[in-house]
Design brief:
The chain is α/β, with parallel strands linked by helices. The chain has two domains: about 120 residues, Ribosomal protein L1/L10, rRNA-binding domain (Ribulose 1,5 Bisphosphate Carboxylase/Oxygenase, 2-Layer Sandwich), CATH 3.30.190.20; about 90 residues, Rossmann fold. It has seven helices and eleven strands. The strands form three sheets. Strands 8-1-9-10-11 form a five-stranded antiparallel beta sheet, covered by helices on one side. Strand 10 and strand 11 form a beta hairpin. The longest helix has 18 residues.
Amino acid sequence: MDQKHIIQALDELKAKSPQRQFSQMIDVTIKLRDLDIKKPEQKVDTFVTLPHALDKEVKIGAFVDGQLLEKARKVFSYVILRDEFASWAKDVKKQKKLAQACSYFISQVEVMGLVASTFGKVLGPRGKMPNPKAGCVVPGVVPDLAPLKSKLERTIKLQTKNELAVKFSIGKQTSDAHHLLENFQTAYAALVKALPSGEDNVKTVLFKYSMGPSYELGKGLRGGN
């Protein structure tokens, strides 16, 4: 994909989008073609770690036992100790609030089975169970959890859900332009690699601010979402 076209898209998006009193996220929608997402082998479901953070708060929950308790408390927003699982199992409403509050969950490998049986019915359908593919299942002997937190703050999920499209964010409108470019290029390359026919499965690429019109790469600004 031509780097100049990407820069042009981001520049025009910035120049022509209505300005708000806050810095909006830059969202990307990549529409796909010639795929049957009812077939598991043609679905996109992968994690990619971007080179730069998205400049937004990423809250992470952790399920641990005493071995990682203090390390987890130093870096994660929510820490649930194994001894507390029983009380959480009785409160589905509380579990749903936790699931809504966190973008990711990590689990100590020694408690992962109990996490699945206790929280799986709530986290599973939301796609938020601790995922080994994203590095979210760790041994109790891990020396430091800060690197994992840093990685997850730069990690996005590329996924086709119920439509032929993948949606993700690459940063804020106030983010460094070079960082935005590199984040997009990294995500796009990962998506192309995950598609059965690579770039031939890409139909259109749209950029937009959270509240504003979209810009179709190669065609310009257009109304709606």
